[in-house]
Model the fold of this input.
Amino acid sequence: MKHHDLETLKDLRTARNATQAQLAARLGIHQTALSRLEGRSDITMSMLKSFVEALGGKLQIAAVFPDATFSLGKLAENPTWSDLRNLEWKKCRLSPMPEERAEDMFLVRRVDESLVELEKISNHQLVEIPIRRVLEVQPETSVTPTTIVLRGGLRWSAHEKLWKVVLE
Done:
């Protein structure tokens, strides 16, 4: 395995032969937001983890001392990921949703390190939500179904005929 020293996120993206448009689509953000992100010198670990995973990699973090190395990989993990994995092929709600869609039910079709893919049960529309946009998974109760709580919300784009995760 080759070792490369890169100085910027842009260098990493170009080394992996990805365009800004491709990577922005994988991350669920606009290309302009990705451009700003690549220009920053200080980002969150969860954003760095999402960036690396969207390129097909895995983020590894270690504290290196002269006499020992300590893996710090758990710092970059999303605690809701295992909760989401347990929801595969189960029904749930999403929150927040537009008021007229608050009762819509979704089937969790797939969960990977960077994405949750859901299918709206009433009309089979697919929704892809970046893992970093999931705030928590609220378990089912006697009166409410399991609910995936998002950072932001969902909005239907009639022009593009797809659901979009938006910050509110």
Remarks:
- The chain has two domains: 9-76, 81-166.
- Helices lie at 9-15, 20-27, 31-39, 45-54, 81-85.
- The mean pLDDT is 84.
